[in-house]
Amino acid sequence: MTTSFITTAIPFVNARPHLGFAYELVLADALSRHRRRRGRDVRFLTGTDDNSLKNVLAAAREGLTPRELVDRNAAAFRELGPLLDVVPDDFIRTSADPRHRPAVEWLWRACARRGDLYQRTWEGRYCAGCEAFVDDTVDICPEHGTPPEPVRELNWFFRLSRYREAIRDAITSGRLAVVSDAARAETLAFLDGDVRDLSVSRPASRSGGWGIPVPDDPSQVIYVWFDALANYVSSLGLGGNEALLDRYWRSGERLHVIGKGISRFHAVYWPAFLLSAGLPLPDRILVHGYITVERHKLSKSSLQLDVAPVLAETGVDALRWFFLRKCRTRGDTDISTDAILAAYDTDLADGLGNLVQRCTTLLSRLTDGVVTQPSEPVEAAGLRALADALPARVDAAIDAFLLDDAAGAIVELIDEANRSLERTQPWKLARTDAAAAASGLLAPLEAARIAAGELAPFVPGVSRALAHRLGDPTLDPRWGGLADGARIRRGPPPLPRKTRSRS
Questions:
Q1: What domains are there in the chain, each with its CATH number?
Q2: Which stretches does DSSP call E strand in 242-384?
Q3: Which pLDDT tens digit goes with each residue over 440-453?
Q4: Rounded to an integer, what distance in angstroms lies between the CA atom of residue 327 and that of residue 288?
């Protein structure tokens, strides 16, 4: 069985999570669910980055110790999964998980054995928000809107320049696919420029000792990005029991899902560390855009949009559907409560929910809800052809990380099922031929069953509700899953509208 290892970035926990990271979680969850539905062995990882200077500074502002702050905020990130109907296989915390520090130390020592670590004094300008040194020409960080801090200190350095050509070759050959034209171009432009060696430690005095000490040099702590990026392999047992590492990193698909603001760390620094340590590179790095409000990026430090109040107004299925139906992975998407509710009502409540409600209500009246397959199949060639083609269309779109196109293909089937129902008008036929009317309902219901199955990675709650209404049939995408003699349930609309109908 093909394996897939899918990860989100692990965010700093200097503040509570916002909708931007919620989008990333849902995106990675949908990719994981879809692969499982198609029979893959999937491991889905998320977690938190606890060991950053950013967290130390945030704790000081609140009068807390770093441990108090990260424990409090990491709990909010862990709780985000259940709120969003996201089900990771693993959740790692870089300050608290016993697997992490030994793996970071193993990675550090592996790079040292390769001759890729050395000490020197460094003078430059440091953005605490990015946790990175920036170019001397940068007066205001474009990502965080704050001025960099001048720094002069003794650091350990990694020979990043040694790996420039190897990383460039991996990207241009497709062995390391950066899935975003803009991020790929930006990465290659960086590699074509003056690639300098990377500072990978900080004085322990500057962080108050918070972080992982450099092996054999307790005066320094390991740079947060060296530490944080290692979570992908520390979670799999690097340097300890490596059974999961063999299964999910040394073979199979390795996919990182990240925001565009951290593409260089994942597409340049992380591959360099892996090459130095003799470990495989990721296969693909999916770089998604930002969630914006009135075209302004969300962040934990300035413009925020907390998840819980939005969910209270929209519900989890509506939010997930907006993220996956309306957000193109390769661009930014503006979000509002009205847009979330409108997408759900149009596609799911009015489209699929209303279809199922009309069909099941009439079938309950005609046959007490019992499915009776006719001896002569009811003609529904166009609808069946669309349904038969749907799994391949969904697969192709998701393989290209165009989840909005995959969702759109499902909506096309729902729309065609509604048009089929309008053409046959079984409610009129029921006046003269109840058996024929009941038979005429089966093709639209079969299309609804297939749509419900293909929607499971996108909106699992919707899929569960429809499966219940349809008598819990198989959600296999092949036509014919509504078995003869099965009983359809009757009830209120399975997907009620979130807003009132406009007159």
A1: 3-320 (3.40.50.620), 339-469 (1.10.730.10)
A2: 253-259, 284-288, 291-293, 296-297, 333-334
A3: 999 999 999 999 99
A4: 9
